[in-house]
Design goal:
homodimer; 421 residues; alpha/beta; Aspartate Aminotransferase, domain 2; eight-stranded mixed beta sheet; 13 strands
Chain lengths: 421, 421
């Protein structure tokens, strides 16, 4: 174990600073150009789904109810796709709408509907200020939706069990709070799975009938190891009074193709009806050929699970490369903390002393692009300037080791700059 | 030529009524079950695009700018798809956003954006009552979008040259009028193509900067015969002050697959930027694999045009079957008028004496489902109860002849019921 920076004398710190500066400058001279900014699968992950493009060979294009998937019709998705996603999310097909390639669009469109048409009551926008709870750190695209619709965001700190439920129960006393975005399993960026206790407390929140939880289950089957996290099915514990509270979404973006997958939404029959009422004006149908292609390729939930093991095989060494370098370079220094997730797409790194922005700049200058520091917080503002999201999926393990070496050196340098008086 | 009903004596009418009643009853006894309600391509039309499903075989999935279409990225469409649609709509690629499978969604989302975020100015919804001009008869899904957003609709009669421009120029004096939906080529349902003069007058309307024409060019290459209509490119005649007035959409729904095609939107660079600003919150990208599949299959505009001749070959006999039966059964009776379009998906039939609703009921009772009578007008209300939309594309020519026989008999019966005192 290395000596903690926090226990060093000023002269030791000064000496370390000089050494780390040298390390950093020599890394900078390598002229790297590595992008670790987004949770993008690598090309090898995309390849494993290419069989899908032949999945319709010899097909008569008829879905289970006899309709030709190439033609117009079926707003809520073909029956076999509804069944597949119902199995994935542990609900009934009647609770499912199968969408296009983007669960983000399904969330955006739903929030838009609540804002301007209402969630069964007066439109949110006509009820005065609208506020959302945002567990932080979280997913920047959720925050962007809130910001687009002028929804005020309230930070809720994450714990190892999920969002701080005491803080949530306090915050919802303000009736302007109309909803919350969550990534309940392998959260973005911390990889935390909400505990059963947390899910139950969320399900039982004392809220108005048009309060909505957007349950973005983007990583529902995205395990990295054999030690998998289990997420309690929130629909199974919703009390009658909150039966319309949850809108769950998921997609195959990180199962098949990010650019050409299939998304889905799960909710109460009442909510599904309300959404279809809007959707019947907005569209005639989503891409049913792509739905059938996915069903023919995966066949069933077991098929999806087997496929996810192929992803895990590719991803595990990448996560390991990051974790190993973080461990070897930063453990014991007292200046950083990080998680070792069992699934998902990210590793979250917290640095001390408000130096995350400085770390981002140092990395950028040395050719390593991180997710914009601050992006994991509403309005891009991390109050303690501590959180850095590492997206290890796109580069190869060898490249990752180089990139994370730059990152750990930048962390040491930035913290030392702060500590040396 | 038959004797006109309008010139018959009451006793002749009475005799004719008895004869037509018998005809109708014997047709009813056939127990038909024919759906002519929607503009759906037949299965034989879908088959001609099936080569597309193999178009990506051996592909490296890279689009022209090197990006892997299977992965995230490129919000406005892959370059080669932008080029293809730019050629189709006679604009530059910078004026194009390539979408998902639905131009209807692109229109819905754009109207939503104008309503709640504005078209460069105060949101429409905050400017008071919002009204749209609706050329009638027109497309029910356009009217449904207006109704969904609470936009008041004003009927504008169609002429053989397009909408009545005098009526439009008068109507826009009301500044609450914020836009107009059009199908400028082979209009739905009349198959009318706006004349060059009409397009120029629309382009030069004296409107506010946030007035928008939704130019739904759904049938831009959907010719049926060698006598093709030509539509003036409205962007080529827009004066500077109206440079942001037009939002054009099109799709391959009736070129490749209705359920799995590619849609596009064309407008000024300024409008494209404003739309992308919303879209970057709403989505990460549309389905780029399907875009590449389409480009590989069609190759270029000539490829699309050659493909459309295959459609015309299938559709022409269907349109002919309808027109022939209308001619042989109704010509000279003085009770109905219809068009013989050079393209598009519909034949529009107008009956006298406010009997369209009755015709719809008689057809339904005899097993022939028409588009809901009234659907071609805002709020489903045809003021003179005269218009019937015939969608001849889905049934075979033989079935069509049966169905249109029922229709013409119903028209005669309904009109006679009115004429006999």
């Amino acid at each position: 174990m290395k000596k903690s920076y926090l226990e060093m004398t000023q002269s030791e710190l000064q000496q370390e600073l000089e050494a780390v500066k040298k390390e950093y400058n020599s890394l900078k001279e390598q002229g790297l150009n590595i992008d670790m900014s987004r949770g993008k699968p690598g090309a090898d992950q995309l390849d494993i789904s290419d069989g899908m493009l032949k999945a319709l060979e010899g097909s008569d294009f008829k879905c289970e109810n006899g309709l030709d998937v190439r033609n117009y019709g079926i707003l809520d998705g073909i029956p076999e796709a509804k069944k597949l996603f119902a199995d994935l999310l542990e609900v009934e097909p009647e609770n499912i709408i199968v969408g296009g390639n983007s669960s983000l669009s399904m969330m955006f469109d739903y929030v838009s509907q609540c804002m301007y048409s209402g969630a069964g009551f007066e439109p949110w926008s006509k009820q005065g200020t609208v506020k959302f709870l945002c567990p932080v750190p979280g997913y920047d695209r959720h925050f962007a939706i809130c910001e687009f619709f002028g929804i005020e965001m309230i930070n809720i700190p994450m714990t190892n069990e999920g969002p701080d439920m005491d803080a949530i129960e306090e915050a919802i006393k303000d009736t302007a709070v109309k909803g919350m975005f969550c990534v309940p399993k392998y959260s973005n960026p911390q990889g935390i799975t909400f505990s059963a206790e947390t899910v139950k407390r969320i399900a039982n929140l004392n809220v108005s009938e048009d309060f909505r939880i957007i349950w973005d289950n983007a990583y529902c089957v995205h395990d990295l190891t054999d030690t998998t996290d289990e997420l309690l099915n929130i629909f199974s514990v919703l009390p009658e009074r909150n039966k319309n509270m949850v809108i769950e979404v998921a997609s195959t973006s990180k199962i098949s193709y990010p650019g050409a997958g299939v998304a889905c939404l799960a909710s109460s029959v009442e909510n599904i009806k309300a959404i279809l009422k809007r959707l019947t004006i907005q569209s005639i149908s989503y891409d049913k050929v792509n739905m059938l292609r996915h069903v023919k390729f995966f066949k069933n939930l077991d098929g999806i699970k087997a496929h996810m093991q192929l992803h895990a095989k590719i991803l595990k060494p990448k996560f390991d490369a990051v974790i190993e370098t973080l461990n070897s370079d930063l453990a014991g220094l007292g200046i950083a903390e990080w998680n070792e997730p069992n699934g998902g797409y990210f590793i979250s790194l917290d640095v001390t002393g408000g130096s995350a922005t400085r770390v981002g700049v140092l990395c950028k200058d040395a050719g390593v692009t991180l997710t914009n520091v601050g992006a994991t917080f509403p309005y891009g503002k991390d109050p303690s300037d501590s959180n850095i999201r590492i997206a290890p999926t796109f580069p190869t393990p060898a490249v990752l080791s180089q990139a994370v070496k730059v990152l750990t050196t930048a962390v040491r340098l930035a913290c030392l700059e702060n500590l040396v008086k």
